[in-house]
Design goal:
This protein has 298 residues and is of the alpha/beta class. The protein contains ten helices and seven strands. It has helices at 16-25, 41-47, 60-70, 90-98, 120-137, 153-158, 168-178, 201-219, 221-248, 254-297; strands at 3-9, 29-34, 51-54, 75-78, 104-113, 149-152, 183-190. The chain is globular, with a radius of gyration of 23 Å. Bound molecules: guanosine-5'-diphosphate (GDP) and magnesium ion. Magnesium ion binds at residues 80, 82, 84, 147, 193. Guanosine-5'-diphosphate is lined by residues 8-10, 12, 33-35, 55, 58-60, 63, 80-82, 147, 193, 197-199.
Length: 298
């Protein structure tokens, strides 16, 4: 199995040397996709034996998409250039693929992380986004934002990466699931990074949250609509309970009662739309599968 380690970098002169050296020492080919670093990142990476390319666009996501189309190895390992993911644990993310138990493996950082590897805000944001992911997709993953991953060729050649920035981890995960590949998680350790983070926690956190919801359309359009329905019904329950409570006290809120009806009806409608979408989506998928089968049998 030919494995290539892909490292997106942007001003990582402090960490990149060690990262490249460690993977090289383990015998792996390393490709650094640089986002136009203005420090010595590219020079240090090359000196340590990595192949270096400069990405044509902007953002970590675009860099990774470019690596996917440039390479043709059996497996790609994705890792940060900041030294936060230990190279000696690469066998952990490779193992499920070698044993044919998964097509895309995520290194779960929450198993053991060094003190200070996550800032408090970072840890909270990660927990919230992972919780939201599990709620929206109904899939129990604990670390969808991890940067340490292994992907089989079928996966990285098939996923469509449209998000250019830090939403890329979520998009990779969702695309893998939506295309019917198997995702699994393995525990890894996570260390404090060298140099400064490129992630802006609040801004990027919101972007990632938005991406989790938007991408749900690709995985399950029905769930996307059910969630809207659930929000409306929830609003209707709150206003409805309040209207009832006030009514027992002798006060009648006519406008709020009308609003309640509206919320509940909208919610129910969304559920019906969701159900229809579900049927349509399932039929389309089944048709597509049967067409594929027919073509194969011919
Ligand atoms: N090529 C490229 N790499 C980037 C860009 N932004 C961030 N990176 C790299 O992506 C990796 C992850 O970013 P990092 O700042 O460590 O984010 P964190 O791990 O989520 O805190 C690091 O190796 C960064 O240097 C970019 O615009 N282009
Ligand atoms: Mg990092």
């Amino acid at each position: 199995m030919k494995v290539t380690v892909v490292v997106p970098t942007l001003n990582e002169e402090k960490g990149i040397g060690g990262v490249v050296r460690d993977f090289k020492n383990l015998g792996y080919e390393v490709l650094v996709v640089d986002g136009g670093s203005r420090d010595r990142t590219r020079e240090i990476a090359e000196k340590n034996g990595a192949r270096v390319i400069i990405q044509s666009g902007k953002g970590k996501g675009q860099a990774i998409a470019e690596a996917f189309s440039a390479l043709d190895s059996d497996v790609i390992v994705l890792v940060d250039g900041d030294g936060s993911y230990p190279a000696e644990e690469v066998h952990k993310v490779l193992e499920p693929i070698e044993k044919d138990l998964a097509d895309h493996v995520i290194g779960n950082r929450f198993h053991s992380y060094e003190k200070g590897a996550f800032t408090r805000l970072n840890l909270l944001g990660n927990k919230i986004l992972n919780f939201f992911f599990r709620f929206a997709y109904g899939i129990s993953l604990s670390d969808v934002l991890s940067g340490y991953r292994a992907l089989k060729r079928e996966v990285y050649k098939n996923v469509e990466i449209k998000k250019s920035g830090f939403e890329v981890e979520v998009e990779l995960t969702v695309e893998t699931l939506a295309k019917g590949f198997r995702v699994s998680e393995v525990p890894i350790s996570y260390r404090k990074r060298e140099g400064k983070t490129k992630l802006r926690p609040i801004r990027d956190g919101f972007r990632i949250g938005k991406a989790i919801y938007e991408l749900l359309r690709r995985y399950s359009p029905a769930r996307y609509i059910y969630i809207l329905g659930a929000i409306f019904i929830f609003l209707g329950l709150i206003t409805g309970l309040y209207v009832l409570y006030a009514w027992f006290k002798g006060i009648t809120h006519i406008l709020l009662a009308m609003l309640t009806t509206l919320f509940i009806l909208m919610g129910v409608q969304f559920f019906v739309f969701g159900l229809m979408t579900h049927l349509l989506f399932r039929t389309t998928i089944e048709l597509r599968r049967e067409i594929k089968d027919l073509i194969r049998k011919r």
